[in-house]
From TrEMBL, chain A:
Source organism: Cafeteria roenbergensis (Marine flagellate)
Keywords carried by this UniProt record: Cytoplasmic vesicle, Golgi apparatus, Membrane, Protein transport, Transport
Protein name per the record: AP-1 complex subunit gamma
Taxonomic classification: Eukaryota, Sar, Stramenopiles, Bigyra, Opalozoa
Cellular localization per UniProt: Endomembrane system; Golgi apparatus
Protein family per UniProt: Belongs to the adaptor complexes large subunit family.
InterPro entries: Adaptor_Complx_Large_Subunit, AP1_complex_gsu, ARM-like, ARM-type_fold, Clathrin/coatomer_adapt-like_N, Clathrin_app_Ig-like_sf, GAE_dom
Primary location: membrane
TrEMBL record, chain B:
A biological process term (GO) from this entry: vesicle-mediated transport
CDD domains, per the entry: AP4_sigma
Family: Belongs to the adaptor complexes small subunit family.
Organism: Cafeteria roenbergensis (Marine flagellate)
Domain (AP complex mu/sigma subunit): residue spans on this chain: 42-183
Predominant subcellular localization, coarse grouping: membrane
InterPro entries (UniProt xref): AP_complex_ssu, AP_mu_sigma_su, Clathrin_sm-chain_CS, Longin-like_dom_sf
Keyword annotations of the record: Membrane, Protein transport, Transport
PROSITE patterns in UniProt: CLAT_ADAPTOR_S
Compartmental location: Endomembrane system
GO CC, one annotated term: endomembrane system
Protein name in the entry: AP complex mu/sigma subunit domain-containing protein
Length: 947, 185
């Protein structure tokens, strides 16, 4: 015995727990399944006759399906029921088909035959049932089999089937697009039907056809006058029974007509002309006091803005939107904002007129409206209004719901970056953003801020930013909503600018910049004790993860080195050492290693090298940041673990600060790697920047001299113990130093294991590291030749350590070209300079048409005095739109009597080859015998064959 | 059987690649559900859900597995309930635009793709649907729809087909339904 659906529902409702409900439904499903099986068995045994509870069972199954139970086993029963002679059973059977069917197409083939019969049935009710089912489930095969029947219903028949046949066609066309063309005459005929429903479905069908196959639009545009007439009739007629809603005649039909006109009028001035009048009529005659009227106005506005309408009509449309925006009802304001979002990239001034209203919507109580408004505010932001807009967006970040915060942060960061009036302003804005919603911001916002601080012009700016950071930290650190990235930045700032923080913050800059700095705390002078205490509190802060702890450890040890010993009371030093020792027994290996290392570094024994190791980070150049991104994304790919490349990028910042602190190399070293420049080369950097400025527009050169590996090749081992020497000493003698440096370079680029530096720290054990072995060990013979090309392009600092380059020079006089021998151009003389004659040879890379290898060669010029020429450095710089990657030079000395050459390959890539030239500058240094160092720079663009 | 295997595979992936790799694996495994590869039409679904979050009627116009359906319904009703009377009737959910309207304890919810439909028009359509149900059931309430699930479906079927509005005229919508009642009686 089977219960009725209503009984089942009552029982289910009476269940006390969800578990009981599920059990009841499962039980019922099992009973139905048994019933179905028995029935099938009975049929096989020859018993015929109506089975009593089929319909009831099917309804219960639909209920179970709605409650989330699997019912796929009943699909066959649906098919059987749809073949029933009883109309009611058939109806339920088809309903079951529409609801219960899943993706298995096997049942569908069985239905096709039944559908075909029902489509040809005498009763229009049966026909309409079959059409509805076909509209919901038709597959491509069914479409091809049955479209003839559908076409017949479309051509003639009562409204009941005709309206449904139109919508069924949509499904058929989607399944089998080739049918569209045959139907066009029939479809246009639908528009002359007398019933609203048929016209509406016909319009819907035309709209879909136009979207599926734009080629039919011209054939439909003939119908535009007719469509306009239909629309006009609806606008002027007031009271049509059963169709009038909110004093508007059939808003659904009007809406569909307007959508179709929108598609037909797009980029078609004739059609647009034909509909101008009626659109004006709709816009002026529609009663805007009800939802229905507003819906039509909304469609009309969209239509007017999209077609080639008259100027007056556009103004009318924009005014309607303005009225919508001021409407009290949220729904109306929402659609207004939505429309403005659509047109903002086409008609910015029209949208900009409503700026104040839109900005006000950002403070609306309704999150849907706020979200739309945010899109618009971002689109409207430009360099003239960035100050107020960024403020509004930051305010919005505070109130935004959790799932929107990331979007808001991204918008603020992007707007600030694009339109910032000054670097200082951008840094201030990002700092405020990170303080309020840093956790939602992507990691590259943090990265960008650190870049801005290091690159900030002038010490005053840096110092005042650092003060601001510290102040924000002390304001926020105790609040439960404190943002972890703020802790990170503040810890980093305290470490880097400890000395500046002990004096008063510099006065605010005067002049025009003054007004554009967001108001914020200025900070005050802090005693070393305060700073140490703040850092100490960060080590145990509830939001501080391993990363922040690592940065804080680095900051503590930097602080001890930055503040002059005279200002550091012994007890503060002891407290700081106490903090450093916190993680000596930590389970986290990184933290523990750092703790021990920094503690050792803070002892008196190493006082003489501390300053070098903990030297300030040189300003990151935009180029260095870009290169870091590039490398870390490559490394992330190689590691294969990191999903988000950008997240991978941002890790580099931490590499600079915390984790690569993990490589056992102190900050000065890391700084060197980050920028690829030593202190000496920084001077070169500045010189090169000046040169670059002196050159023309494109001459703002990307790879500044001295950046990257060009920093590496010092003339000989004796000379290069400058700034690096101190660091190198720490790690042991000669070659190992180079190895360590290389290992660090590899580690900083994310490829090496973080622990790789630790053995190096032990003193000369660099051989443990594979990379180090390659660059400095005996294996170096093979290394530069085979290994150099790929690392040299991927990681420009590879082989850039003080020891590595001479080694490369000694063992591999001619570095192998990066790829298969490119097609070569003849060697061209570029210029002569002092004792040297410099030539260039360009070889195109057959694999990559945008890049070429330029070989620079320095020969002894015939006029040169006898004696060795030493200290030869060949460097190049390329225009901003190009990239370059160096290979190690073959050497740096031309011995007495030898003609040379010293040569060096540089791979230049010009992604815009064809539109822009290969623009290259050279810088050559040398020390002639008995002379002093001489430098020469020249633009060699002319000497290169422009290909 | 298949599902178990997949779970094991995921666990193995976590073990071998770490969390990041596993996440990638999972996103790859979930194909875009699409009814027989046919692009979906305008309305994606029509739901009637009460304030307790129980679904009273659900009609989907593109294919979704049962798990996806339950998850979608739960998420949407939770969002609806968190909104106040004062807020607008539109929200965005998983890239779809959702229009909802509350009548007594029952939420009528329609989802469609952005730019495919007029939001205000959808709101008006929900109202037309409710008025039709009201006319048929005479002062409709949640229980009417619940206990007469098939009738409610018949009426919805007469008004929406494959996500497009067929008719909004109460008389012509109710004619076939009334006929069914007459046959049954």
């Amino acid at each position: 015995m089977s219960c009725r659906l209503s009984d089942l529902i009552t029982e289910v409702r009476a269940c006390k727990t969800a578990e009981a409900e599920r059990a009841r439904i499962t039980d019922e499903c099992a009973q139905i399944r048994n019933a179905l099986r028995e029935e099938a068995g009975g049929k096989r045994r020859g018993r015929v006759g109506a089975t009593p509870f089929r319909e009831r069972n099917m309804l219960k199954l639909m209920f179970a399906h709605m409650m989330g139970h699997s019912t796929h086993w009943a699909q066959m029963e649906c098919v059987k029921m749809s073949a029933s002679p009883s109309f009611h059973e058939k109806r339920v059977g088809y309903l079951g088909l529409m609801l219960l069917l899943d993706e298995s197409a096997s049942v569908l083939t069985l239905v096709t035959h039944q559908l075909s019969r029902d489509l040809q049935d005498e009763s229009p009710f049966v026909n309409s049932l079959a059409l509805a089912t076909l509209a919901n489930i038709a597959s491509a095969d069914m479409a091809r089999d049955l479209h003839r029947h559908v076409e017949r219903h479309l051509a003639s028949g009562p409204p009941l089937t005709r309206k449904k046949a139109a919508l069924t066609c949509i499904r058929l066309f989607k399944s089998a697009p080739e049918l569209i063309d045959d139907f066009i005459p029939r479809v246009v005929g639908l528009l002359t039907d007398r019933t609203h429903a048929t016209i509406m479905t016909g319009t819907t069908l035309m709209w879909h056809m136009a979207r599926m196959k734009p080629a039919v639009i011209p054939r439909f545009s003939k119908a535009v006058p007719h469509l306009a007439k239909l629309l006009r009739k609806l606008v002027v007629s007031t009271n049509v029974p059963n169709y009038t809603i909110g004093r508007v005649c059939d808003p659904f039909l009007q809406s569909r007509l307007l959508s179709l006109l929108r598609v037909l009028g797009r980029d078609n001035s004739v059609a647009s002309e034909q509909m101008n009048d009626v659109l004006a009529q709709v816009a002026t005659h529609t009663d805007a006091s009800r939802v229905a009227g507003n819906a039509i106005l909304y469609d009309a506005v969209q239509c007017i803005l999209e077609i080639e309408s008259e100027e007056g009509l556009r103004i009318l449309a924009i005014n309607i939107l303005g009225r919508f925006l001021l409407n009290k009802e949220n729904n109306i304001r929402y659609v207004a904002l939505n429309t403005l979002c659509h047109i903002v990239d086409k008609d910015l001034p029209a949208v900009a007129r409503h700026r104040t209203t839109i900005v006000a919507c950002l403070r609306d109580a309704d999150s849907s409206i706020r979200r739309r408004a945010l899109d618009l505010v971002y689109a409207l932001t430009d360099s003239t209004n960035i100050l107020s807009m960024a403020g509004e967006m930051v305010n919005y970040a505070v109130i935004a719901e959790k799932d929107e915060r990331a979007a808001v942060c991204a918008r603020v960061a992007s707007a600030a970056r694009r339109f910032a009036p000054s670097m200082r302003w951008e840094a201030d804005t990002l700092l405020v953003l990170i303080a309020v919603r840093g956790e939602a911001a992507r990691r590259d916002v943090v990265r960008r801020l650190i870049y801005l601080v290091t690159a900030a012009p002038g010490d005053d700016t840096q110092a005042s930013l650092a003060h601001k950071c510290a102040e924000m930290l002390s304001e926020n650190s105790s609040s439960p909503d404190c943002q972890a990235p703020l802790l990170l930045i503040a810890a980093w700032c305290i470490g880097e600018f400890a000395a500046e923080l002990t004096s008063d913050p510099p006065p605010l800059p005067e002049g025009p910049d003054d007004s554009v700095i967001p108001v914020g705390p200025r900070g005050r002078a802090r005693t070393p004790k305060e700073l140490v205490d703040v850092l100490g509190s960060l080590l145990t802060h509830h939001k501080a993860g391993t990363e922040i702890k690592g940065v804080t450890l680095t900051a503590l040890s930097k602080l001890l080195a930055k503040i002059p010993p005279a200002q550091l009371p012994a007890d503060v030093v002891e407290t700081a050492r106490g903090h450093l020792a916190t993680f000596q027994t930590s389970l986290n290996q990184e933290l523990q290693a750092r703790s021990v290392e920094f503690l050792a570094l803070s002892s008196e024994d190493l006082a003489d090298v501390r300053a070098d190791i903990l030297a300030p980070i040189p300003a990151l150049t935009a180029d260095a940041v870009r290169r870091l991104k590039w490398e870390s994304s490559a490394a992330a790919e190689a590691a294969g673990g990191d999903e988000d490349v950008i997240a991978g990028l941002s890790d580099d910042v931490d590499d600079d600060e915390g984790r690569a602190g993990g490589t056992g190399l102190a900050a000065g070293m890391r700084a060197m790697e980050a920028t690829g420049a030593t202190a000496d080369d920084q001077q070169a950097n500045r010189a090169a920047t000046k040169t670059a400025e002196a050159v023309d527009d494109e001459g703002s050169l990307l790879d500044l001299f001295g950046g990257g590996p060009s920093a590496s090749p010092p003339a000989d081992a004796d000379e290069d113990l400058g700034a690096d020497g101190g660091v190198a000493d720490l790690f042991g003698p000669g070659p190992a130093a180079g190895g360590a440096a290389t290992a660090a370079a590899a580690a900083s680029s994310g490829a090496g294991a973080p622990a790789s530096g630790a053995p190096a720290m032990g003193g000369g054990a660099a051989g443990l590291n594979l990379d180090a072995l390659f660059a400095a060990g005996p294996g170096a013979i093979a290394a530069p030749a085979t290994h150099a090309p790929s690392p040299a392009t991927l990681h420009p600092h590879m082989g850039g350590g003080p020891g590595a380059a001479p080694a490369a020079g000694a063992f591999a006089p001619v570095p192998a070209p990066a790829a298969a021998p490119p097609s070569a151009f003849p060697e061209e003389e570029a210029f002569s300079f002092g004792p040297l004659r410099v030539t260039l040879q360009l070889r195109l890379d057959p694999a990559d048409s945008t890049s070429a290898v330029v070989t620079m060669r320095a020969y002894r010029s015939p006029a040169a005095p006898a004696g060795p020429i030493s200290g030869i450095v060949l460097e190049s710089a390329v225009a901003k739109y190009m990239r370059q990657a160096f290979s190690p030079p073959s050497g740096s000395t031309i011995p007495d009597g030898a003609p040379g050459p010293v040569q060096r390959d540089v791979r230049v890539t010009n992604p815009q080859r064809g539109t822009k030239p290969f623009k290259v500058m050279l810088r050559v240094q040398c020390v002639p015998a008995g002379g002093t160092k001489a430098v020469h720079k020249a633009d060699v663009t002319g000497a290169l064959p422009q290909v | 059987m298949l599902r178990v295997e997949r779970r094991v595979a995921t666990a193995a992936a976590i073990a071998s690649q770490g969390i990041g790799g596993a996440r990638k694996e999972r996103t790859r495994q979930r194909p875009r559900a699409c009814w027989l590869g046919v692009p979906a039409t305008m309305m994606k679904f029509l739901l009637m859900v009460n304030k307790q979050g129980q679904t009273r009627l659900a009609q989907y116009f593109d294919f979704k597995s049962i798990e996806e359906r339950s998850a979608l319904e739960a998420e949407i009703i939770r969002k609806c309930l968190s909104r106040t009377e004062m807020q607008c009737s539109f929200m965005e959910h998983r890239g779809l635009k959702v229009v909802y309207r509350r009548y007594a304890s029952l939420y009528f919810i329609v989802g469609f793709e952005e730019g495919e439909e007029n939001e205000l028009g959808m709101l008006e359509f929900i109202h037309a649907l409710v008025e039709t149900l009201d006319k048929y059931f005479e002062n409709v309430c949640e229980l009417d729809i619940m206990f007469n699930l098939e009738r409610a479906h018949f009426i919805v079927d007469e008004m929406v087909m494959n996500g497009c509005i067929v008719d909004t005229n109460k008389l012509s919508v109710l004619k076939p339904v009334a006929l069914l009642d007459r046959i049954k009686a």
